[in-house]
Amino acid sequence: MGREGLIIADMLNDFLDPGGALYVGPQARGIIPFIDRKRGEFRASGGLVVFVCDAHAPDDREFRFFPPHAVKGTWGAEIIPELTPRPGDRRVEKTRYSCFHRTGLEDLLRREAVGRVAVTGVCTSICVLETVKELFDRDIPALVYRQGVADFDPEAHAFALKHMARVMGAEVV
User: Fold this and answer.
1) What confidence tens digit (pLDDT) does each residue in 91-117 have?
2) How far apart (Å, rounded) are the C-alpha atoms in residues 171 and 173?
3) Whole-number Å distance between alpha carbons of 98 and 76
4) pTM score above 0.85
5) What CATH class is the domain 3-172?
6) DSSP class per residue in 22-67
7) Measured on CA atoms in the order 101, 110, 161, 43, is the torsion positive or negative?
């Protein structure tokens, strides 16, 4: 199967800090210790840890749907202090929901011989779901930790977990 990878999606100040522009809520803060623990496990076993982070232009078209957030170079686009990247962790910037859209992530996973990818972060029904769909399209097995994802909307969160398992073949644990 090859090396395993861990994607940590959008664990940024604007999503995780109560003062952030698009705060997901206390349920998102609750996943921080789990993600930190998983990051340690992946690193200890030789896995690849990749932070994939929104880095929007000030006039990004996504702001038609959501308030401006995670503008490149701002505090809101910084990874939360609790998950500050460590040596060896990678960071990839994105401007769309999927962690793959024009990011170079696919090339990185291939270069690093990653055979399965675990996905964590926010939001379950948006960036996590779109990323798992892209993994499915690339025939890369996906694993999603229930304790490692959160969303604004509990119903959308529940739907996304079911959809990823039933339609995209992700292992949801």
Assistant:
1) 999 999 999 999 999 999 999 999 999
2) 6
3) 19
4) yes
5) alpha beta
6) T---HHHHTTHHHHHHHHHHHHHTT-EEEEEEE-B-TT-GGGGTS-
7) negative
